[in-house]
């Protein structure tokens, strides 16, 4: 009898949790499992703000996929997924086609630019190892070049961060530590550097605890960050950005513009013809696509509703990992027989780092700020390594400088 073919797309948080749990749920003869990922490494998306600022080397944020999967049970294909043909039950990759009986889409997110002119061309994003390396090097080059220009140009040392959501705030926290280092390295007076955060909503970290927002903003302002709240980026140009507040517009010249103002699901999901909202598919409680019961979609490509407030849950690694565990159980039920379970997120909290030694957050219902929050953030980071790769991976890649 032919074994069912399970194909998992993406080796991020959702994909790796699915595969590592699936090999525990299914025996060798139960199914053929294939994992497809663009690179031979997994990166911790949740640490990319550090690699992008240059406060943590990108190699610390990634590890080899073969080190955490059971290679005798999982066929790992390093390839770029190009399209999904859900009618023919096929995936087209840069390395050829794969047919499936069950598909798990865990391809993560891409920046949402809301059609704002110039962002795709001129702004940087915090999306993967390549973009992080590029941004880190670009910022450093501006500092290295500043004193060599015949006429010093203040815009070289102006960094604009679009969006004061969690990504924007965490990146600003890293810049708060990195900029003094760069100034020292390149003989620059820190007064010449401007870090500007532009946020369209009436507050930073919209929806978060007001006391913690105040703490985060005061802390970052103390590190030299200027906030322009209630101000939207309208356009990005080779020279900088155009912002708008009420009826006024202003140009800010900046050599570095970082777009951290939201994400959408991987375009492959939209292109495959799944019904979606900004690339995210509203999945059934068992995490399958309502019209395609052989396809599971998880992580940033999925949309699940928080019934308490009737709004989508924000896409997080926390949810992607929990979804991976549920999908593994549900695939095992489909292959071996049994009933499928409904996914229920267990939100343990949210902590945003403000550089290496500070943070704000709510964990297990308790508000935290300062070094305690920062220690909690590192525990969360280590836990995610543990969940995928056990104690060995924590020892290899974990964060242990708690205070
Ligand atoms: P990902 O983990 O992003 O993985 C997607 C995988 O698919 C990657 O390996 C990618 O290489 C691969 N891939 C993409 N396209 C293709 C293709 N075409 N072909 C083949 N492979 C492909 N969430 C939290 O819960 N806590 C946090 O503290 C937190 N911090 C964050 C900090 C930053 C800077 C950012 C940007 C996000 C943060 N998030 C956090 C959100 C979290 O990172 C995402 O929700 C999470 O990564 C989603 O997991 P995923 O499995 O859907 O996708
Ligand atoms: P987000 O959508 O959470 O925040 C984007 C911010 O950009 C919002 O505050 C929005 O008002 C603002 N914005 C949108 N358009 C703008 C414009 N034209 N000009 C200026 N500001 C604009 O996106 P994110 O911060 O990238 O986070 C993405 C997901 O990842 C979220 O679900 C978030 O919870 C998660 N995340 C979590 C953590 C953490 O838990 N520590 C860290 C980073 C990201």
UniProtKB/TrEMBL annotation:
Gene Ontology biological process terms from the UniProt entry: aerobic electron transport chain
EC number: 1.6.99.-
Cited Pfam families: Pyr_redox_2
Named cofactor requirement(s): FAD
Single GO MF annotation: NAD(P)H dehydrogenase (quinone) activity
Family annotation (InterPro entries): FAD/NAD-bd_sf (IPR036188), FAD/NAD-binding_dom (IPR023753), NADH-Q_oxidoreductase (IPR051169)
Keywords: FAD, Flavoprotein, Oxidoreductase
Top-level class of the enzyme under EC nomenclature: oxidoreductase
Family: Belongs to the NADH dehydrogenase family.
Family annotation (PANTHER family): 64 KDA MITOCHONDRIAL NADH DEHYDROGENASE (EUROFUNG), APOPTOSIS-INDUCING FACTOR 1
Protein known as: NADH dehydrogenase-like protein
């Amino acid at each position: 009898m032919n074994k069912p073919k399970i194909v998992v797309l993406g080796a991020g948080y959702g994909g790796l949790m699915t595969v590592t749990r699936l090999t525990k749920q299914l025996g060798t003869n139960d199914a053929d499992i294939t994992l497809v990922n663009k690179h031979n490494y997994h990166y911790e998306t949740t640490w990319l703000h550090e690699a992008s600022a240059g406060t943590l080397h990108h190699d610390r944020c990634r590890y080899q996929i073969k080190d955490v999967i059971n290679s005798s049970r999982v066929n790992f294909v390093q390839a770029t997924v190009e399209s999904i043909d859900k009618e023919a039950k096929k995936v087209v990759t840069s390395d050829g086609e794969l047919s499936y009986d069950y598909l798990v889409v865990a391809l993560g997110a891409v920046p949402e630019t809301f059609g704002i002119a110039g962002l795709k061309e001129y702004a940087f994003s915090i999306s993967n190892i390549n973009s992080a390396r590029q941004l880190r090097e670009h910022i450093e080059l501006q500092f290295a070049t500043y004193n060599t220009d015949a006429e010093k140009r203040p815009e070289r040392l102006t960094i604009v961060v679009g969006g004061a959501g969690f990504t924007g705030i965490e990146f600003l926290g890293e810049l708060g530590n990195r900029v003094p280092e760069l100034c020292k390295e390149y003989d620059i007076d820190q007064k010449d550097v401007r870090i500007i955060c532009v946020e369209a909503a009436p507050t930073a970290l919209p929806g978060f605890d007001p006391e913690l927002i105040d703490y985060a903003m005061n802390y970052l302002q103390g590190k030299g960050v200027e906030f322009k709240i209630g101000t939207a980026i309208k356009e990005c140009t080779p020279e900088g950005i155009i912002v708008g507040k009420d009826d006024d517009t202003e140009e800010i010249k900046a050599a570095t513009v970082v777009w951290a103002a939201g994400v959408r699901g991987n375009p492959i999901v939209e292109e495959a013809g799944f019904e979606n909202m900004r690339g995210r598919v509203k999945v059934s409680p068992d995490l399958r696509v309502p019209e395609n019961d052989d396809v599971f979609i998880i992580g940033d490509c999925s949309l699940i509703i928080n019934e308490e407030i009737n709004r989508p849950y924000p896409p997080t690694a926390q949810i992607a990992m929990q979804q991976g565990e549920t999908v593994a159980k549900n695939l095992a039920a489909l292959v071996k027989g049994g009933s499928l379970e409904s996914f229920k997120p267990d939100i343990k909290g949210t902590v945003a780092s403000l550089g290496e030694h500070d943070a704000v957050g709510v964990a297990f219902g308790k508000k935290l700020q300062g070094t305690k929050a920062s220690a909690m953030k590192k525990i969360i980071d280590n836990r995610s390594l543990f969940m995928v790769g056990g104690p060995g991976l924590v020892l290899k890649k974990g964060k242990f400088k708690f205070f």
